[in-house]
Amino acid sequence: MKLLAAGILFIIGVYLVQARNVQSSGKTIYCYFESWTVYRPGNGKFDIEDIDPTLCTHVAFTFLGIQENGSISILDPWESDSDGLNGFQRFVNLKNQNPNLKVIVSMGGWNEMSEKYSEVVADATKRTVLKNEVLAFIQAHKFDGFDFDWEYPARRDSENPEDKQNFVLMLRELKAAFEPHGYILSAAVNGAKRNIDVSYDVPSLSEILDHINVMSYDFHGEFDDYVGHHTLLYSSAIDAEYNNSDWNINDGINYWLELGADPSKINLGIATYARTFTLEDASNTALYAPIKGGGTPGPYTRMDGVLGYNEICELYPNVADIYDADQKVYHKIVGDQWIGYENVASITTKVNYALSKNLGGFMVWSFDTDDFLGICGGGRYPLINAIKTTLATKN
């Protein structure tokens, strides 16, 4: 029994040392958990126990939904609730391994659309319902805070220009309710310069929020009719020909800062997944080349136009990376498949970029598409660890 106890104490000690290392940089690493990944097949199945609780300073459980009266909607009760897989409790229990870890619950996401959120935040009574339910939920489940991922105010299926200020009202009311308890309030926001003015009162968000998680990805994808990298740091000359000279991470981040966002609150979004394309002509692999549609689905993510880094490194271990020196990103060509993705080198570039802007840290979407099993030879979580390793060299 003494040996067992000593072993347990040693493991806890290792976790605490690793946790102190990620905390010591002073930078946030805010990582999202896609709860539906528990249903993926084979090596793609990702559950809460696959999360290394020392990798990130903050982890967010996605997603809660919203009902038209402002009430919380539990999107997957079987995965989340105590009479199913008990996901909420297991997620919060990650703090047992790293007491410094902040566990957050996130509401919204792409599939929730925008209209319901627009209607709720426009109505004072419904805002009160949402505020009270969120507060009660956090207290009941012992989360450390709440992340609002409305995609997006005054866009998609809501074109109400009042969304911009009503979102501020909602966030102020949540913040006032959270402050006596010390709860964290963050929001995931659009990273494209041309969309920011439509959706966000930047100075107000910067005043209210503890973290501004900028979604610095999805600039291109199979929703276009041409090839483009979805995490380009800078534009290249050809982008100007298509009126996309501002359609990149740098222009978006600079605009958030220009409008008054506190850089210490901005977390630069890092994508661990690729956007992929099926080329119309396999011999034309240039940016803006015409496409037939999204790339072939992978065995785990199983979506047209998307591959996880873990899928790419398994499927194409010997296919060379092609570097775009202007955009500072990499892609692969496999037959008629064009795969734009992040690797350790491009993430290192983005970390150094964020440091040059004095940003507060990084937001990662998401755990499950990194090589979390470490089967491709770079150890477990090579992409997220690239953030940590680069930060460590700056201390």
From TrEMBL:
InterPro entries: Chitinase_II/V-like_cat, Chitinase_insertion_sf, GH, Glyco_hydro18_cat, Glyco_hydro_18_chit_AS, Glycosyl_Hydrlase_18
GO molecular function, one term: chitinase activity
Signal sequence annotation: 1-19
Pfam family, one: Glyco_hydro_18
Keywords: Disulfide bond, Glycosidase, Hydrolase, Signal
Domain of life: Eukaryota
GO BP: any one term: carbohydrate metabolic process
Record carries keyword Metal-binding: no
Residue ranges occupied by any GH18 domain in the UniProt entry: 27-394
GO CC, one annotated term: extracellular region
UniProt family annotation: Belongs to the glycosyl hydrolase 18 family.
The protein's name in its UniProt record: GH18 domain-containing protein
Lineage: Eukaryota, Metazoa, Ecdysozoa, Arthropoda, Hexapoda
